[in-house]
């Protein structure tokens, strides 16, 4: 499911949300400019669970090489040491959330943050939203580490922090409308879904994939438990902020219920 837009307008410009998106894009451009050294950059600043578990020990990642000989192809595994970060390894719980592996990875994360982040910033305020985003990202990384503390696979991406924003949105605006694109073969569906349905289905999908990864050991290159952890950490942090009275009052309902038009139908 791909969100197109939601029905909740912001009362002020989400400057922090735009700033986070700009930082993600800028860091990715730095990765691209690094050329062959991009892998070393990722190794240094990505979150590697084994490095968090044993910060004083060298971490090795296996590199597989194949050699053709007169007797057939021989497979060799040469372990290569991973470069250490120039700061304590625990800080990679946070630095990893500004790294991305591809344009699609980057654009997908930035789009979800663009759709849901402005309204959460509207309720938290600019400064508190920045700390909330960083806290959700670090919490997502920490939960992923707890699930597989000896993994040597580098983890990168802002999706854990963005999942925290989505968890907050789920609690703040459960009845908002989300205009949703669902690709079904070559005939895409465009639906209006309540936010609690869109985000609830998203979370259930992450949980099922994460549970499957635990039992089979196959993750498909996706850090499912970072998504799950970020959603739960963000939701929990939002509840804590709500009970401390730090949230701004919601916008008036008339401004909140901006209609969403699909073809000739108007949904309020």
What does this molecule look like?
Mean pLDDT is 85; it is low at 254-268. Helix 8 packs across helix 9. The protein is built from ten helices and seven strands. The chain has 268 residues and is α+β, with helices and mostly antiparallel strands. The strands form three sheets. A three-stranded antiparallel sheet has the order 1-4-5. The protein has one domain (2-56, 84-267): Rhomboid-like (Rhomboid-like fold, Up-down Bundle), CATH 1.20.1540.
Give descriptors for this structure.
268 residues, Rhomboid-like fold, 10 helices, 3-stranded antiparallel β-sheet, globular
Question: What is the annotated CATH architecture?
Answer: Up-down Bundle
CATH topology: Rhomboid-like fold
Global morphology: globular
Count of strand segments: 7
Taking strands numbered 1, 2, ... along the chain, how are they ordered across the largest sheet?
1-4-5
Uncertain parts:
254-268
Helix/strand class = alpha+beta
The major pleated sheet works out as:
3 strands, antiparallel
User: Secondary-structure element sequence?
Assistant: EHHHEEHHHHEEHHHEE
End-to-end Cα distance, whole Å, is: 21 Å
Domain count, please report it.
Answer: 1
The overall average pLDDT, rounded, is 85
């Amino acid at each position: 499911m791909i969100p197109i837009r939601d029905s909740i307008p912001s009362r002020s410009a989400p400057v922090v949300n735009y700033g986070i998106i700009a930082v993600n894009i800028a860091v990715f451009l730095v990765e691209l400019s690094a050329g062959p050294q991009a892998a070393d950059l990722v190794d240094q600043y990505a979150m590697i669970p084994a490095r968090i578990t044993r910060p004083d020990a060298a971490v090795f990642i296996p590199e597989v090489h194949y050699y053709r000989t007169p007797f057939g192809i021989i497979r060799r595994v040469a372990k290569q040491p991973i470069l250490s970060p120039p700061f304590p390894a625990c800080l990679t719980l946070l630095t990893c959330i500004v790294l991305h592996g591809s344009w699609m990875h980057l654009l997908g994360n930035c789009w979800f943050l663009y759709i849901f982040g402005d309204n959460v910033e509207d309720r938290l305020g600019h400064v508190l939203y920045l700390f909330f985003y960083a806290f959700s990202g670090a919490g997502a990384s920490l939960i992923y580490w707890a699930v597989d503390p000896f993994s040597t696979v580098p983890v990168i991406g802002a999706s854990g922090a963005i999942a925290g924003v989505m968890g907050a949105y789920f609690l703040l605006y459960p009845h908002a409308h989300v205009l949703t694109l669902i690709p079904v073969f070559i005939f895409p569906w465009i639906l209006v879904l309540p936010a609690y349905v869109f985000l609830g289905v998203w979370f259930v999908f992450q949980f099922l994939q994460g549970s499957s990864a635990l039992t089979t050991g196959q993750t498909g290159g996706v850090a499912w438990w970072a998504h799950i952890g970020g959603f739960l950490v963000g939701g929990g942090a939002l509840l804590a902020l709500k009970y401390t009275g730090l949230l701004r009052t919601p916008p008036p309902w008339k401004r909140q219920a901006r209609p969403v038009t699909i073809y000739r139908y108007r949904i309020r």
